[in-house]
Write a structure and sequence with these properties.
This protein is α/β, with parallel strands linked by helices. The chain has 2 domains: 2-30 and 297-422, Aspartate Aminotransferase, domain 1, CATH 3.90.1150.10; 43-295, Type I PLP-dependent aspartate aminotransferase-like (Major domain) (Aspartate Aminotransferase, domain 2), CATH 3.40.640.10. The protein is built from 14 helices and 17 strands. The chain has helices at residues 2-5, 40-49, 62-81, 96-105, 121-124, 141-153, 178-187, 207-210, 236-240, 280-296, 298-317, 347-358, 370-377, 412-422; strands at 16-18, 24-26, 28-29, 89-93, 112-116, 131-135, 161-166, 191-195, 214-218, 229-233, 251-256, 262-266, 322-324, 337-342, 360-361, 363-365, 401-405. The strands form 5 sheets. The chain has a 7-stranded mixed beta sheet, sandwiched between helices. It is globular and about 75 Å long. Bound molecules: 4'-deoxy-4'-aminopyridoxal-5'-phosphate.
């Protein structure tokens, strides 16, 4: 079926890399979960705008007006892509990490935060100034909902509370029951933020339908690697918080007081948290990617990705010693992200061999989700991951894992080369 087998055009398809065994080969980028290549169309849109680049919200000249229009229309496009509510605010940030740190800085006083230990560190760690309850790794989606409900039932129902949850795991690719978790949060008077860094590039995300209060994602995982991220959702906490960054753009008026100090009146819309000159090219690129994915249609994108996931799973299933990591079971629905270990191998060495001998780029380590990967590997803090872990002897536990991830630009040949190389 050509609809399922034709990848979207992306940059970097023709990059060749040398092999240690001699010769060269086209690079197989199978680390989309870290950063996906730019869609050709995003690159074209960025190039078309580049000659007209100007300052946003600052100049009276034509290029400045054009850039301001482009920036604000990018905001509207991304809000439509996320199916935001009419009164939601959408702030352009640098990344998911930045978005979640912004929300963490905007928590009301006394806010309690609930987060599963299985989260990416970007979702696990920003809540330093709040009372945080870390929830144990669930083994089924239903258990995730029950665990959250149990924890929320014990909270002070008067105070503010926030749940932070991923839509798709950056380690296992597994989908989390976001709608059910949002319903549980709301039933207990809490709010919920969705970390959609891995979900949004692969699945439609509707803020309205999932009934989440905020959503965060990164442009560079959504085929728009130009330094932009997004935080979208309820306006009230953002409006009531101190600006994330203080400076021009966030301030409406600044005046000297008689006592020598300075009075500031801050903006209350998205500008409140976008001080300084914003990344208009990054915002334009994210909007372009949102348009491209919407026009391609998520039905086709999901179908294509399922086809690739099946190929990878079938290929790995035939290799002795390979164990695919999963929290919710091998058949759980997932996006194009899959981690595994190979008995007797240090995953870092395995990943290095895939690169040096086959021209395949994957990731190894603990993937900025240390507690989750340790749970999946059945290890303790000795699993340090990134590099230098000792070779696991046959029968011993691996101390780190290998992750393969792909998406809209991945040709079948890349995953076929990958499974053949693993075998
Ligand atoms: N959340 C998840 C689930 C992720 O996979 C990542 C990136 N690996 C992040 C958050 C952080 O994204 P960024 O590095 O773009 O801030």
């Amino acid at each position: 079926d050509p609809a399922v087998c034709t990848p979207l055009p992306v940059l970097g398809r023709d990059v060749t890399v040398p092999l240690v065994t001699g010769g060269e080969v086209t690079y197989a980028a199978l680390d989309y979960a870290a950063s996906a290549p730019a869609l050709q169309r995003v690159w074209d849109d960025v190039a078309a705008y580049a000659p007209y680049y100007g300052s946003v919200h600052r100049g009276a000249g034509y290029l400045s007006q054009l850039s301001t229009d482009l920036f604000e229309s990018a905001r509207a496009t991304v809000a439509a892509f996320l199916d935001c509510r009419a009164d939601d605010e959408l702030v352009f940030t640098r990344s998911t990490t930045d978005s979640l740190n912004l929300l963490a800085a905007a928590l009301p006083a006394g806010c309690q935060v609930f987060v599963f230990e299985t989260e990416h560190h970007a979702s696990l760690l920003p809540w330093r100034d709040a009372r945080v309850t870390y929830l144990d790794a669930p083994r089924t989606p239903d258990e995730a909902v029950a665990t959250l409900e149990g924890a929320l039932a014990t909270r002070d129902p008067q105070g503010p509370a926030l749940v932070c949850v991923t839509g798709a795991s950056n380690v296992t690719g597994e989908l989390w029951p976001v709608r059910e978790l949002a319903a549980a949060a709301h039933a207990h008077g809490a709010r919920i933020v969705l970390d959609a860094a891995q979900l949004a590039p692969h699945h439609p995300v509707s803020v309205r339908d999932l009934d989440v209060d905020w959503v965060a994602f990164s442009g560079h995982k959504l085929y728009a690697p130009f330094g932009s991220g997004v935080l979208a959702g309820r306006a009230d906490w953002l409006r009531e918080a101190e600006p994330y960054l203080a400076g021009g753009g966030a301030s409406r008026t600044v005046s000297r007081r008689a006592d020598g100090g300075v009075d500031v009146e801050w903006h209350d819309g998205a500008a409140r948290h976008e001080a300084g000159s914003p990344n208009v090219i990054g915002a334009h690129a994210v909007a372009s990617a949102c348009k491209a994915l919407t026009e391609e249609g998520f039905d086709r994108l999901v179908a294509r990705e399922r086809h690739l996931i099946e190929k990878v799973r079938t290929g790995l299933a035939g290799v002795p010693g390979v164990r695919v990591l999963s929290l919710f079971g091998d058949d759980a629905p997932r996006v194009g992200v899959l981690s595994f270990v190979v008995e007797g191998w240090n995953s870092s060495h395995f990943a290095a061999a895939l690169s040096a001998e086959y021209g395949i780029g994957v990731r190894d380590g603990l993937f900025c989700a240390h507690p989750l990967v340790r749970t999946l590997l059945g290890t303790g803090p000795e699993a340090q991951g990134e590099c230098g872990a000792p070779e696991a002897a046959p029968g011993e536990k691996s101390l780190n894992a290998i992750r393969v991830s792909f998406g809209a630009g991945t040709p079948d040949e890349h995953v076929e080369r990958f499974t053949a190389a693993v075998a």
